[in-house]
C-alpha cells in the first residue's frame, strides 16, 4: 500500500478514519465545502506568480511522477503539481523550484490568511517524501494571501501573496514523520481500530465518517449533539462525562449554563408539543410598523479579491429579495434584484435597493445583523447613497427575536431557531414553502457558490435556468418571513 499525503493527513487526525478510508471508503459522507473551491482558485492564482512554470497534468501517480522526473531533467523551471514517489510514499507538491537536478525548494499554497499546524504537517510530509525520492530539500515555504491586502486599481499577484519560510520548523518536525508512517501502515493492514468519538471528528476538518462512528456509539436521536450554539468541545466533554441523552442532561447539575438547561428542556418536549409566550409575543408584534419590507441578501466571498476596493474574503452582496406588505396579514408585493455575473454588483444593487425601500420605511430580516452590515458597508462604499442605506439599516426589525428568546418554540425545531428549522415547524403543511423542493439552489452556501461560478457558464439557456433557481431560493427566504409573521399573529389572536 502506498501512503499518500491525503492518507497521511487522515491518519494524523484519526486512526479509525484512516482505516475506513482504505478499507471501507463507501461509508464516507461527501463533504464539499466552499473552502475547497477557494483553495483551488488560490492555487491557480499562485501559478501566475511564476509565469515560466510548467504544470504536470493530472493523471495516475506513476505517470505524474515520470513526467516530473522528465521536467526536472530538462531544466530549472518551477514545476507545479510536481509528483514524487519513494519508499512506499507519494505526494504532489503545489510548486517546486529547482536549484539543480537534485536540489529544490517546496512551496505549498494555502488559501488561509495565516499558517496553521495542519499545514505544517502537510508540507512536512511532502518534504519527507521528496527526500525519500532522492532529492535535497533546501527550503520549504508556505504561500498564502497577505493580511490586509487591498485590490485598489489592479490586482497585484506579488502583493497578494506572502511567502513564509518554514524550513526550520519542518526540520524539527521531520523525525516524527517516519514513526507516523510505520504506525499508519500497521493500522491499515490490521482490523478496524476501536476509537471513541471526540474533537478529532470535527477538527482540523469535519470527518466524512463522523455519522458512521456516531451510529457505532449509539448516540440517541435527541442528544447533547443537538444543543444549538454549544461549542463542539463542550459537547464532546459532556459526552465523555456520560451526559449524552436529553435525560442525562436534565440531571447534569452545574455542568450546563442556565441557557443550556433551557435548551435541554426544549429538546425534551414531546412530539407535537409547543411553547407560546403570548405576553412577550404581543409586545414584539405590537412594536412592528407597516408598511413592512421583508429583506434578504445573498452574498459571496472570494479569497482572491474580484473587484476594486475589496479584500480577501470580503462579503460581496449580489442579490436581494423584497416582499412588501402594507399592513399586517395583508396582500404582498414582491421585488427582487440579481446582478449580472462577472461584474461588480454592489453599485447596481445599492441603487435599486434605495429605490425599492423608501426613506424611513421599516424593514425586517431574519437575523438582521447581516442585512444591517451589508447596508452599512455599501454606504461606506457609495457615500451618495449613504442616507438611504443607513435609513434601511437603522429602521430594521429582526424576526429572529421571538425564536431566539423562545417566545415561540415547537418540538420539531429540535432546539434550533434558524429559519430552515422554524419555517417547516410553523408552516410545514404548505409544500410550496419547502426548501428541499427548490430546483438547483436550496441553501445560502449553494447560492454563493452557484453565483460565483455563473460567469463561466456559456450556454444562455443554462444561465437563465441557474438565475431562475437563485431567484426562487432568495424569494422563498422573504416569503418565509411573511408566512412566519402571519403565523405569529395567529397565535396572539387565539
Structure characterization notes:
It is a single chain. The chain is built from 19 helices and 13 strands. With 494 residues, it is an alpha/beta fold. The chain has three domains: 5-189, Lambda Exonuclease, Chain A (Alpha-Beta Complex); 219-268; 279-493, Nucleotidyltransferase, domain 5. Strands 1-2-3-4-5-6 form a six-stranded mixed beta sheet. The longest helix has 34 residues, at 460-493. It is globular, with a radius of gyration of 27 Å.
Summed over residues and divided by their number, the pLDDT gives a mean of 93
- What's the CATH class of the largest domain, please? Alpha Beta
Q: Stretches where pLDDT falls below 50 for ≥5 residues?
A: none
Count the helices. How many? 19
CATH superfamily of the largest domain: Ribonuclease H-like superfamily/Ribonuclease H
**Percent of residues in beta strands:** 15-25%
DSSP strand count: 13
**Helix amount:** 40-55%
The main sheet orders its strands as 1-2-3-4-5-6
Biggest β-sheet description: 6 strands, mixed
Structural class estimated from helices and strands: alpha/beta
Short structural summary:
The chain has 19 helices and 13 strands. It has 494 residues and is α/β, with parallel strands linked by helices. Helix 1 (5-13) crosses helix 5 and helix 18 packs antiparallel against helix 19.
Characteristics:
Lambda Exonuclease, Chain A; 494 residues; alpha/beta; five-stranded mixed sheet; 45% helix; Nucleotidyltransferase, domain 5; six-stranded mixed sheet; 19 helices; single chain
List the helices and strands and how they pair.
Layout: H1 5-13, H2 15-23, H3 34-47, E1 54-55, H4 61-74, E2 79-86, E3 89-98, E4 103-109, H5 117-132, E5 136-145, H6 157-160, E6 161-165, H7 167-189, H8 210-216, H9 232-240, H10 246-250, H11 258-267, E7 274-276, H12 278-286, E8 292-300, E9 316-325, E10 332-338, H13 346-356, E11 362-365, H14 369-381, H15 386-394, E12 396-398, H16 401-404, E13 408-410, H17 419-427, H18 444-454, H19 460-493
Parallel strand pairs: 1-2, 4-5, 8-11, 11-12
Antiparallel strand pairs: 2-3, 3-4, 5-6, 7-13, 8-9, 9-10
Helix pairs in contact: 1-2, 1-5, 2-7, 5-7, 12-19, 14-15, 17-19, 18-19
